[in-house]
UniProtKB/TrEMBL annotation:
This is DUF4040 domain-containing protein. InterPro entries: CPA3_Na-H_Antiporter_A, MrpA_C/MbhD, MrpA_C/MbhE, Nuo/plastoQ_OxRdtase_6_NuoJ. PANTHER family: NA(+)/H(+) ANTIPORTER SUBUNIT (PTHR43373), NA(+)_H(+) ANTIPORTER SUBUNIT A (PTHR43373:SF1). GO terms for cellular component: plasma membrane. The lineage of its organism: Bacteria, Pseudomonadati, Acidobacteriota, Thermoanaerobaculia, Thermoanaerobaculales.
């Protein structure tokens, strides 16, 4: 049953990705990217990676969509086709990068393999000693809040800093836009007064 859910979610993700590539309306593309992020979060949940699903839902579907919509409010809502021409070197770079990534996956252990090294590095210690050392009943919360507390705090600080930076850039662009149009309107008003 899980395999069917994986196949359905991956199919939806592929269809939405192709639709995003083909769209020229940027608002529709942003909305589809938000849906893509929510489907990705659903896929992570099915794969038992709930913490990653929360991050994808919050950052991918939430913050990123809001920032892209804010950016669209400062620009045009459709993609310019003036510079649209085929770029074969870009296609070659994408195909070569994709081939390298696929080749790199051949050396990885099978998905869910209990004998994989990742499951025996520190996972055994977490499973055996979390209750005694931390006292939190939820193991994922104990790992993220205690064992990996500095890492989680760092990730949160990076995301917060990026959001503040983008909001400052968007606010600065909006302020400049208003200031420029105010300057253009002032000479006309001064000329009308005299």
């Amino acid at each position: 049953m899980i395999d069917v859910i994986h196949i359905v979610l991956f199919t939806f993700l592929a269809v939405i990705a192709i639709a995003i590539i083909r769209l020229r309306d940027l608002f529709a593309a942003v909305m589809l990217m938000g849906i893509f992020s929510l489907l990705s979060a659903s896929l992570f949940t099915v794969m038992d990676a709930v913490d990653v699903a929360f991050t994808e839902a919050a950052v991918g579907a939430g913050v990123s969509t809001i920032l892209m919509l804010a950016t669209l409010s400062l620009t045009h809502s459709s993609e310019s086709t003036r510079y649209a021409r085929p770029r074969p070197m870009a296609l070659v770079a994408v195909v070569l990068t994709g081939a390298a990534l696929v080749y790199a996956t051949f050396d990885m252990p099978r998905y869910g393999d209990p004998a994989a090294p990742i499951h025996h590095h520190v996972a055994d210690h977490y499973i055996e000693d979390t209750d005694d050392e931390i006292g939190v009943p939820n193991m994922v919360t104990a790992i993220l809040a205690s064992y990996r507390g500095y890492d989680t705090w760092g990730e949160t600080a990076v995301i917060f800093t990026a959001c503040v930076g983008v909001m400052m850039l968007l606010g600065g662009a909006r302020t400049f836009y208003r200031w420029r149009h105010r300057e253009e309107d002032e000479p006309e008003e001064a000329g009308e007064a005299s």
